[in-house]
Sequence to fold (224 residues):
Amino acid sequence: KNEVEQSPQNLTAQEGEFITINCSYSVGISALHWLQQHPGGGIVSLFMLSSGKKKHGRLIATINIQEKHSSLHITASHPRDSAVYICAVRSDYGGSQGNLIFGKGTKLSVKP
Amino acid sequence: DSGVTQTPKHLITATGQRVTLRCSPRSGDLSVYWYQQSLDQGLQFLIQYYNGEERAKGNILERFSAQQFPDLHSELNLSSLELGDSALYFCASSLGRRTEAFFGQGTRLTVV
Fold:
């Protein structure tokens, strides 16, 4: 079982829809990151969270440390939001030694 | 623009060859991380340097090595290349271990 699980793996939405991507993890963490990777390959850091909720424009990220779960929400989705969204956790325990452990990503396609 | 610069963007080379990937971190960032993204494995942590010293190692093959120079730029050396080494290689930098990491655009390595 992967230490970081994302769902869904693939998501297709119509423009304007509210989107939720989920991330569950099984290790103790010091922070959780949401990353965006566009088809060209570059990775952009969207959020770093250790508790609560953060908002940036149409993007909202929440984390529940007790439940080991995070969600990324996109309001009023747009075709330019089409990308792969990757959840990554920073664990200070065990072999990962404080470095990032990645989920396999959620591929989002927003249709006009 | 994340402020992290990776060169080259694309690299095509033959099996058995040796290549060097270069990363210039954001101004002021002391930590540099290298990651490999292959189609079947997703993103995996390779190695981390902090202010010139190796800080942590992940799933890095013995054929691969890295270093961080006094000006904080880093190089990842890949030798005796195999077809399976074809992947996107990302560099990221951060001020410290517990701060947000910023990713470069990646180097796409194709081994033929």
